[in-house]
Amino acid sequence: MRHKLFPVIFTTMALCGMWACDGFKEPEPVRYKAPEVEFTLPSDVINAQVGETVSFTARVISGDKVSTGWYINDVLTSSSQSFDYVFENAGSYNVRFEARNGAGVVDHSYQVNVSDILKISLSTGDSLQIARRQLDYLKVAAVVEYGKDVIHEWSVDGTVMGEEAFFGSLQLMEARPYNVRYRGSNICGSFDKSFTVSVIERPLEISFSNYDEIVAILAGRNLTITATVLFGGTGLEQKWYLDDIVVGETGEFSHYFPVGGEFSLRYEAVNAKGETVTHNWKITVTATGRLFDDFEADAIGAWFNLGENQPGIELVENPLVGGLNTSAKCLRDRVYGSGGTSGYFTMKGPKMLSEKGFDISEYSGIRFLVYLGANKYYPRVDYGGTKYPSVTPPKFNGEWEILEYKLPEGQTFDNTKNIVFRLLLTEAGTNISGGNIEAEENNRTVYIDDIEFFK
Question: Which residue, among 68, 72, 62, has the nearest Cα to 99 in the 3D structure?
Fold first, then answer.
């Protein structure tokens, strides 16, 4: 379309006659040609979408010293005759062009209706399969380029696990493919994208139930050590060697040692990638002296003073069968009440001699199995008024363990005296304090088994 305005001529009028202005020549008037503009868009109403580029063109075909400008909602946006503009938000906009000089003005307006759209991309790009390392967290984001009020949904193997644009809560625990699907939606539509996460298995890593370089047990006992595969177990082959002889090909070593001696134990594992783990132990088996492990209710009454605490020593089911103690039954020492106590009970030497024919005077040491649970107690053996601590302190490893006590060099037990077990003591040898007996580390319950005298 073309708009024309007639030019305006400005003239200066002389007020004096030619005879009064001798030699004066009247100046030529300043003349401007009004702008003439050609617009190329076919319609004054333009429909566009958010993010779409709209091109505006107004060609000035005539006019002197013409200044031009494009205004979007009355804000000057461009001074060129042609320009491109991207509308970032939905709505209705007035786009006006103006051409101006001293002879006149040409302007023209367009109504631009911008509708919203939904445009989303993922931080993983267009990939249908990505790789991550085992134990890493999957971190991926939905990038909303255009669109408002988007509802996000992340699902893994069919289970919805996230409802934010950023998804980072999935820890890839297993070395397997994970199917991840994203869906984003708003009033304009929806965007769906699925991809597979291939998890790269971490290097072979194995933990052991016992890391002691030297494992000491008593003859006649069973030793169990467990190898737990933490990572890298694909195609794993395991072997246990006892003195270089294969004795097991699973994750558990369990062996009965009938006699004393020293043995070497080696674990070897290799997975499908050729990664290996090895570990070695030295097993020291001590020949037993006189062992008492088959307790019965009537024997307890004969050998021990009952009722010294309430309820005191009792025959009960083994609470932790396995490891150093596979017995079905054991002794439990439990103390009610809230005052300080050592939880003591007494083994009667004279009764042992008269009823079992066992003379404790032949021995200078005593050892037994103890299970402390979560208690932080330091059991002692009280003999002749001296509370003897164990040769090595308790490990507090949550399992059955061996505590060993020795009399001073050259001394043996007296079969006319009693031996007192004080299980509920502090590290300093004092009674435990009173308080809540249900507390995890003060529940006043200790289990013992396999009382053995040795020389």
Answer: 68
Contact residues for 199 (Cβ-Cβ < 8 A; gap 6+): 131, 132, 133, 134, 172, 174, 175, 176, 177, 178
**Closest C-alpha among 286, 285, 281 to residue 267:** 281
Residue 18 clears pLDDT 50, i.e. is over it: no
pTM greater than 0.85 (yes/no): no
Q: Where are the domains of the chain?
A: 2-16+32-110, 119-200, 206-286, 290-454
* Cα atoms in the Cβ-side hemisphere of radius 13 Å centred on 77: 18
Residue with tokens 């300080």: 340
> Which of 321, 324, 309, 230 minimizes the C-alpha distance to 277?
230
* Integer Cα distance of 182 and 322 in angstroms: 48
Q: Does domain 119-200 have CATH number 2.60.40.1840?
A: no
The pairing of beta strand 276-286 with beta strand 261-270: antiparallel
pLDDT given at position 296: 73
- pLDDT tens for residues 127-151? 999 999 999 999 999 999 888 889 9
Residue 94, strand partner residues:
111
pLDDT value for 345 = 86
Torsions phi, psi for 405 (to 5 deg): -130, 140
CA 69 – CA 107 distance, rounded (Å): 9
CA distance 117 to 275: 53
Task: Tell the CATH topology of 2-16+32-110.
Answer: Immunoglobulin-like (2.60.40)
Cα 184 from Cα 146, distance rounded (Å):
12
Give φ, ψ of 347 to 5 degrees. -95, 125
Find all residues with CB under 8 Å of 12, minimum gap 6, and list them.
26, 27, 29
Return d(Cα 391, Cα 403) in angstroms, integer: 7
- Cα distance between residue 157 and residue 159, in whole Å: 6
Assigned CATH class of 206-286? mainly beta
- In contact, 246 and 239? CB cutoff 8 Å: yes
DSSP 8-state secondary structure symbol assigned to residue 362: G
Could you check whether 2-16+32-110 and 206-286 share the same CATH topology?
A: yes
Find all residues with CB under 8 Å of 23, minimum gap 6, and list them: none
User: Distance (Å, rounded) from C-alpha 324 to C-alpha 399?
Assistant: 8
Residue 101 contacts residue 64 (beta carbons within 8 Å): yes
**Which CATH number describes the domain made up of 290-454?**
2.60.120.260
List strands edge to edge, sheet with 177-186. 129-133, 189-200, 177-186, 151-156, 159-162
